[in-house]
Amino acid sequence: MLLSGLLGGTVAIVAYFDPLCSTGTIRKYNRIIPVIDARLQKTNLLMRSKDSYDALLIGSSRVEQFKQEDFLPLRVFNYSAPAMYLDELEEYIDLFLRVNNSKPEVIFLGLDFYGTNLKMHKHARPPGYYIKTCSSPFTLGTFLNLDTLKYSLRMACCKKARFNYDRMTLDKLTGLFSREETEKLREGDKVVFAQTFYGDYAYNPDYHRQLQSLKERYGQIRFVVFTTPETMELFQVLVAKERLGDYERWLRDIVDVFGSAYNLMLPTRITIDREIFFDAHHLYPEKATPVIRLITGIDKPGNNDVGYLVNRENIKEQMDIIHNVFIAPKEKVIQ
Questions:
Q1: What is the pTM of this model?
Q2: Are the CB atoms for 124 and 82 separated by under 8 Å?
């Protein structure tokens, strides 16, 4: 009797707060959920939703920071997740197109330079795992998971995590970091990128083909492609590791396939302002608005200092900007 009561109570708590978004029900006390597994939670949200979206936004955790309201009047599904690589995208985009109630107008595609590394240092479970898991019917076991219960109890006690999702808007809600926390994260990122993403590195020779495959597979949908911003401190790690040649190859691969892209990964008023990042490469959501205004066409390239529209004709000009900031001063010192 006691056991059945405990089991019943567990099921009731987990089903009500539903931190993994296993049901499509939004209640007063479960709208804000802790970030647990972005791919699982967002796939659940997509498959349980009855909403129709005008556009898809997909990329890494850097793109997760973009707010839905900044895309209005477009209703955007933000399918971005940490360390999202090109080889994952087709399955997630296919799922979105299959379950969305209308054909999207545009796919906003955020690309990270570290995603060109053939030696991928972080990778989630394959998309098929998440899609299969979220497609399975509910069972009692769905609501009898101890970890899920733990998160549900925290929600019941109104304990907010540092990172949360608003399941109604799909916005990622990021709590403020202290200056000391930010500095520690920033320095840690520089060490990690120096040792792995930009250090233990080889350009993926299949990267161009993967981009081409995306473009051809969804040729009927307009792509807006952009590179993701990071602090210039982190970009300096890329330069120190002598990856500028690979960076240029990356930009050329992108514009060769898509014709043009918004380049946000170079010196701008955004990337030199370390105060608007909570680490070395993630913007605070409320600080990403100028970036979104650029990629949605509200602000025109050249009318702001947030990023530039790079194409085959001006890519050398873009590289000259990088060279003048990072390489030329060093050459003068040597001379």
A1: 0.91
A2: yes
